[in-house]
Amino acid sequence: NPEPQKAFSWPELNLPIAIVVRNLTLDRGYVAVNDQAYYVDAITASARYGPGSLVFDALQVRTAASEASLSGSADLSYPYQFDVQLDWDLQPLPGDAHTAFVPAAVLDRAPAGQLALQGDIADLTVDASLARPVELSLTGHYLTGLDERPAAVDAEVSWSRQPLAALGVELEALSGSDIA
């Protein structure tokens, strides 16, 4: 007779210690990925870990032209309840080799927006908005299927009426096409 399988048990991610970081600042550094270095002007953080949760009061990364910030909290035991907010304003650096072939109209419309995630690993709510290069929002509810409920997605994307120029498309480029 085969042994009966134990029911799956989600792991506890907490340790019996608390770690608190207040106003940590790292100035002028870089992250290397393969042979490419990405320079950072500053990283600031305030966070707490343990005993039952992880809290980011603030995590901010700044480069010469871009900024991203994260805040939120997460429980370290099932169902891993969380509430997270991310804001970003990403601008390419002047002379960045990755942007050499990108039209200026697109560079002028580098992404900026925000994202909020709430829920747990079985039931997730998403609220996202893009302010640039176009105005767009997404709200949704996602059941992952990791509990007794079947997986399901209910989402709505809103795209307000915007001129094509918001996309960085020259109107003259569309003349003679089926879109014009």
Provide an overview of this structure.
The structure is a single chain. With 180 residues, the chain is mostly beta strands. 4% of the residues lie in helices and 49% in strands. Strands 1-2-3-4-5-6-7-8-9 form a nine-stranded antiparallel β-sheet, with no helix packed on it. The longest helix has 4 residues. The radius of gyration is 22 Å and the shape is globular. The termini are far apart.
Task: Give a short overview.
The protein is mainly β and 180 residues long.
Average predicted confidence as pLDDT: 84
- Ends distance: 71 Å
The helix/strand series, from N terminus to C terminus, equals EEEEEHEEEEH
The level of helicity is under 10%
* Oligomeric assembly: single chain
Count of DSSP strands: 9
Which structural class do you get from the secondary structure elements? mainly beta
Shape: globular
Largest sheet features: 9 strands, antiparallel
Q: State which percent range the strand residues make up.
A: over 45%
Helix count, per DSSP? Answer: 2
Strand order of the largest sheet: 1-2-3-4-5-6-7-8-9
Keywords:
49% strand, 180 residues, globular, 2 helices, mainly beta, 4% helix, 9-stranded antiparallel sheet, 9 strands
